[in-house]
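Students often ask why we bother encoding 3D structure as a string. The short answer is that it lets us treat folding as translation between two languages. Here is a chain of 216 residues written in the first language.
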Amino acid sequence: MDRYRHPSPSVRAPIRTLGAEHRPAILKHLLALGEHDRYLRFGYAATDEHIRRYVQRLRFDCDEVFGIFNWRLQLIAMAHLAYMVEGQGRHSAEFGVSVSRHARGRGYGEQLFARAVRHARNHGVTVIVIHALSENAAMLSIARKGGATVVRDGPESQAHLELPPADFESSVTELLEEQVARSQYWVKLGSQRLRHWWRRLSGWGVRLARRRRPVA
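And here it is in the second language, the structure alphabet:
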């Protein structure tokens, strides 16, 4: 297994940890995926009902879910880091990611992978595993760029990435990333509420003007 490669510095999207209160946003994001995208993400032809069950069963108290929101607070990319318990600890975790079609080509998948890896390191995980269809070139590219070893077995592939122990840099970086992401989320929420208030105020002004319009 290869060692994790630190991602090169670049402008990154704010990635925040998601909780149970974000289930509706997660469901909306996944339901919006096309048929082929669902097939690549889940490894089978996932129906709406399959996706609803998956979202309902997300274990926010055990696993980690990360997301990227746009300025309209739409979830446009998310990653699921599922811990695999071994003995008395969680030494390995499985990674899965999805990105909305209109948001691709911006490196969100790689950024979510780097965020998940950093979190996993800081919580004692030593190996990250990715199960993907061999035709899922985007996912396998993310794994290889992160330093993972990819083994192909017919229509399916498996990637393994050995993680180094946590250090001061990984701990502080994750803490700062989460704080920045949460701050920007609240800024976006405030902006959305201001736009909503302004639309209501504008509509009220238009209605008032119509009422005052003199009758010919």
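Translate back mentally: The first strand starts at residue 2 and ends at 3. Keep this in mind for the problem set.
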